[in-house]
Predict the 3D structure of the following.
Amino acid sequence: MPLGGNGLKGAPGVRRNEPNSGMRLMIVLTAVSIVLFTFGARESSGGGVFTTIRGAVSVVTTPVRYLGAAVTAPFQGLGNIFSNLTANQETLSDLKAENEKLQAENSKLQESQKTAERLENLLALQSTYNLTSVAARVISGPTDSWSQSVTIDKGTTSGLAVGMAVTDSNGVLGQITECGATSATVRLITDENSGVSCMIQSTRAQGMLKGSADGSLSLTLVSVDQTVKVGDNVVTSGLGGVYPKGLPVGKVTSVSKTNGGLYYDIDVQPLASTSTTEEVLVITSLSEDQKASSEDISSADAQDTTTSASSASSDSSADSSASIGQ
Amino acid sequence: MQVNDSNRRRRSIGRLGLVCLVLQLALAPNIGIADGRINFALVFSAYVALTIGGRTGVLCGFLGGLAFDLCTTGPFGLMTLLLTVGSFVLGMEDRNRIAEDLSGSITIFLIVSFIVTLLYHLAMFLVGQASSFYDVFVLRTLPTFALTAIAFLPFAFVGSHGSGAPLSSLKGGAGSVRRRSGKFDLGNL
């Protein structure tokens, strides 16, 4: 048997006799809650009683919050996984938009950096070879399938003219074949109709670099009595007065010769990026030391003479053999 | 014969309230699914209402809601109102339901908890705290309800089985002597 009025609580059989024991209190507290809610809603955002009370509670309970944060810190990674998995759509959309924006900016910056690097390389080339040149930007590729050419954004108004050599930061790119007021067409060295007087850098063996329909380069007219190896650098010889002497053109990738042939079959890999170049230098004039000297011309003539002599000797040998055979 | 010890009961409720307050401040902010957070004020109010009920339950619901409103940034008095009414509903039978009918207690807790959570977030939605009902319901209401329900389970389990239940001294109330073995239950006398 419970004693005391309060003791009735928890004795179900007895409490059923007081069905409204909490009703009045509930009504009163509900009214109080509504009043609190109303005053709370009417309170300006700048501050007020409730804001002050909340601030005080926040200050008092801060140590507990710190404690909780410290205790749960090791598990925050797990919580972040769940948070990320369940992030609301608005957050995801914002993050996606921000990510796209950052990616775009990143691409832009990377592009700027690469452009700067290319221009620096062009400047380095210009400085190294002491070139008198005009920088231009490639604005389009070949306009038809029959030629390998690019169009640059400078023309006669910038001092360009037909026949001028064009190079990128890696090496010779081609030669201007058409020149308008504000644009020019550059025939690439890989074009079938292109020909550049070149030489093997190490042995000074002279030859003619020719393009082809498939875009490959071959160095022709190099006599078999010259020494050419795979990996040799091919540079311009300066003969013809179009390209400055010594500009890099490519590397020898294969060397072969046929029985009885007078010249090597030499394949060359171009150094210039003929399909991806964006900035170029147009060489507007050559200094005297960039042109082929009389010695170079004599040397080229000597090679040609030697080749002719060899050819004559070979021919006579062949004729003799033929005679013997007959 | 058992003498009622109202001071002991108050102390037990106070301890439970303190535990829930600490959990609300320390644990709830750090455990969440989506935007949902555990509502330990609801757990406290529901536990008291289901174990004691009546006026004490209503009062604890009011105080629990008040503490919740003070600790959060939501509209002041909203959770106070909801927990006051919710505690009254949970404690209407005015008996220790957790000890006598655990599954039934949990069921009614889940119902009331869901309604309270939904109403709270709906009110937040109506006062312009959110712009999408989908967000309110899926990303706030359901996670909060689920987490609170999970948080309530240990309390309910301990309250129904453990001898060290927070309000074990109140089970059956004064005048009732209840054996945990279930062999003797004088509470219904």
Remarks:
- The first strand of chain B starts at residue 32 and ends at 33.
- The radius of gyration of chain B is 17 Å.
